[in-house]
From TrEMBL:
Protein name: Leukocyte elastase inhibitor
Higher taxonomy: Eukaryota, Metazoa, Chordata, Craniata, Vertebrata
Gene: LOC100567410
A GO cellular component entry from the record: cytoplasm
Native species: Anolis carolinensis
Pfam families: Serpin (PF00079)
Keyword Cytoplasm: yes
Keywords: Acetylation, Cytoplasm, Protease inhibitor, Serine protease inhibitor
Length: 475
């Protein structure tokens, strides 16, 4: 008998052939009865035996079913693995972007505390993202102790792939199809006779979009200053003018790193201009000034901070990717602005807890009274950054910027930051440039009457990045 395919036998042996006992066997042929076959043998006719019908064996069917089940299981596992990898990648990306947001917020609060020490009762407004981005370009070319101090002061050491993540963040918030206008722009101005390392220039161009303009600080410093100021003014829609004063640059200037940010957004829920009236704003317990007070009654995210008796309100901008978060004490309890207790507790963990969506009511109708205001602030940041530990970079004898140039004397001589914000019934316009909560059980209607000093910041919600941070204490 010829060998039969394994899948087609029921009596196979280890070799996959029919057993010898079946060859020339006297088994009845298919379709013949035993009597018919016996009669044929008596008559001397040849009887040819036929093997059993060709049908799948039980063991083969079981193996086939088992194989099919295994295949399905493997496919399911592969699908789960693929999904897990994608989810894991998203979580990893989210985690790393959280690192960047935390570092930016940490730096914002550190710098705010230093600005507060110098100005305990006045207005404050700055862009932490703008400043840290400018410092990141310096960090890109820093080495040794200079890089270490920069990393610690700006909390860059807590971020993996810092420059790549800042590039990704800039791309994310600089979208041309966004329902708001938000532009970040960077540029380098270098002395044309000075030699900068090609790798540094390539990296700043690739990661920060910062092109190098070769200029003549040596012979025409004031002309270059005008050129820089005009570029900044153009990038901020005319809101930031004269970023660099006359004494900011001179014939010894080698490099100016300029970073500008501009934001204009409309409220998701606009204030009605007809509801805006003259109201008193209390600067302290004793002093008042009249302001144009806007009013709105809407359902808005609202929270309360028990520890410092403070209300939290979120005013989303159109599209809800950006929001203004306001922190308002119940009243002026101290002899200053009423913000002392809140500002003392203003650390990273607290701010995140107070303003996270899980700790905010979203279905409360809030009666909002908010003054129209406009702030324009300018800072020479050197002393504040030195107070944060950033010293070497300003010292020509200690600064190690050998990643920018092989010259030994290169250092940062000045970091200037200028910012602007305007809040009205339509929304907010803001700009800046740099060179260089547990909730209580509460009634469904809430009052948020900002007739006394408050803190505020503008946040990019998808990444939790603080773009601007400020204190409004005086109209």
């Amino acid at each position: 008998m010829p060998a039969i395919d394994v899948g087609e036998t029921s009596g196979e042996n280890a070799s996959g052939t029919w057993p010898d006992s079946l060859e020339n066997s006297q088994q009845p042929r298919k379709g013949l009865s035993s009597l018919q076959e016996t009669q044929e043998r008596k008559e001397g006719r040849e009887v040819v035996s036929t093997p059993p019908p060709e049908k799948p064996s039980l063991s083969w069917r079981r193996r086939k079913a088992r194989f099919a089940g295994t295949q399905k299981r493997h496919l399911a596992e592969a699908s789960r693995t693929s999904t897990d990898i994608r989810v894991g990648e998203r979580r990893e990306k989210s985690f790393i972007m959280d690192q960047l947001a935390n570092a930016n917020t940490h730096f914002a609060l550190d710098l705010f505390q230093k600005l507060t020490e110098a100005n305990s009762t006045g207005n404050i407004f700055f862009s932490p993202l703008n400043i840290s981005s400018a410092l990141a370009m310096v960090y890109l070319g820093a080495k040794g102790d200079t890089a270490t101090l920069l990393s610690k002061a700006c909390h860059f050491d807590a971020v993996e792939d810092l420059h790549v993540k800042l590039q990704a963040l800039s791309t994310k918030i600089n979208r041309s199809d966004a329902p708001y206008v938000l532009k970040l722009a960077n540029r380098l101005y270098g002395e044309k006779t000075y030699c900068f390392l090609k790798d540094y220039l390539t990296s700043t161009q690739k990661l920060y979009g910062a092109e190098l303009s070769m200029v003549d600080f040596l012979n025409a410093a004031q002309s270059v200053r005008t050129q820089i100021n005009q570029w900044v003014e153009g990038q901020t829609e005319g809101k930031i003018t004269e970023l660099l004063s006359e004494d900011s640059v001179n014939e010894l200037t080698k490099l100016v790193l300029v970073n500008a940010i501009y934001f204009k957004g409309s409220w998701e829920e606009k204030f009605d201009k007809f509801d805006t009236t003259d109201k008193p704003f209390r600067l302290s317990k004793k002093e008042k000034k009249n302001v144009k007070m806007m009013f709105m009654k809407k359902k808005l995210p609202f929270g309360y901070i028990d520890d410092c008796k403070c209300r939290v309100l979120e005013l989303p901008y159109q599209g809800k990717e950006l929001s203004m978060i306001l922190l308002l004490p119940d009243d002026i309890e101290d002899d200053s602005t009423g913000l002392e207790q809140l500002e003392k507790q203003l650390i990273l963990g607290n701010l995140q807890k107070w303003t996270c969506s899980q700790n905010m009511y979203s279905n409360h109708e809030v009666y909002v009274h908010l003054p129209k205001f406009k702030l324009e602030e300018s800072y020479d940041l050197q002393s504040y950054l030195e107070a944060l530990g950033l010293r070497d970079v300003f010292d020509s004898g200690k600064a190690d910027l050998s990643g920018m140039s092989r010259a030994r004397d290169l250092h940062v001589s000045k970091i200037v930051h200028k910012s602007f914000v305007e809040v009205n019934e339509e929304g907010t316009e803001a700009a800046a440039a740099a060179a260089a909560v547990a909730t209580n059980s509460m009634p469904m209607r809430e009052k948020f009457n900002a007739d006394h000093p408050f803190l505020f910041f503008i946040r990019h919600n998808p990444t939790n990045t603080i773009l601007f941070f400020g204190r409004f204490a005086s109209p």
